[in-house]
Amino acid sequence: MIWTILKHVVSKKITVNFGDLSRTKPVSSLLGCDRGTPMDRYYIEQFLENHSTLIKGRVLEVGDSSYSRRYGGSNCSAFEVLHATPGNRKATFVGDLTTVSTLPANAIDCFICTQTFNFIYDVQKAVLGAHYLLKPGGVLLATVGGISQISRYDMDRWGDYWRFTTASVKKLFEPVFAGGIEIESFGNVLAACAFLQGIAVEDLPDKALLDENDPNYQLLIAIVARKRQ
Q1: Which CATH number characterizes residue 63's domain?
Q2: Residue (of 145, 130, 150, 111) closest to 221 by Cα position
């Protein structure tokens, strides 16, 4: 159907020089982590900085508390860390978002959950778990991957299951968070191609190129979800 429509569209052709993009191996197979700042982290940090006033009180983060401390700082009364399995010395809670019996109930003012839901098969249960642990009026600041290569690190440990769009995120979160949700996407064709190649932000001639947003290239989707008072 789409091809039937597009083949009738007349447009000026742009000369494309694929250059090194003809390669079949990425510049980095580690999402660009070994070269500098990955594209998705640029957008994650922009999102958290834009919503830093919400990072306060008793704050929970997955894996470690680096973002809580960086963007919440003195506004936080406690820095909690959630990890799914024992062995993380930074963890203050060992629990599974898909199993509410392992989570503290109505305990957290702000839950920072970046790039986590992609790696949970029972993602609908995980959204319910994120809601469960928040205090009434608490807020979830979450990000999920859209256009992305497989994260081999996560695939080999617990699985890499999902890629999202703003539409699928709305379907997942809206029925659960009656306090309201806000959804935004980040990315453009340059950012998406660079991320798939494992090119780091520092490799670009100007990182401001990442700030032009094109909703047809959703590299990252960010969610602000509030639990009803």
Answers
A1: 3.40.50.150
A2: 145
* Count of domains for the chain: 1
Strand, coil or helix: 21: helix
Domain holding 117, by residue range, is 40-187+213-226
What are the φ/ψ torsions at residue 109 (nearest 5 degrees)? -80, -40
Strands (E) in 117-180, as ranges, are 134-145
pLDDT tens-digit readout, 79-100 = 999 999 999 999 999 999 999 9
CA dist 157 and 84 (Å) reads: 12
Q: How far apart are CA 222 and CA 213, in angstroms?
A: 13
Q: State pTM to two decimals.
A: 0.92
Evaluate whether 28 touches 146 at the Cβ level (below 8 Å).
Answer: no
Nearest to 51 by CA among 37, 30, 35, 70: 70
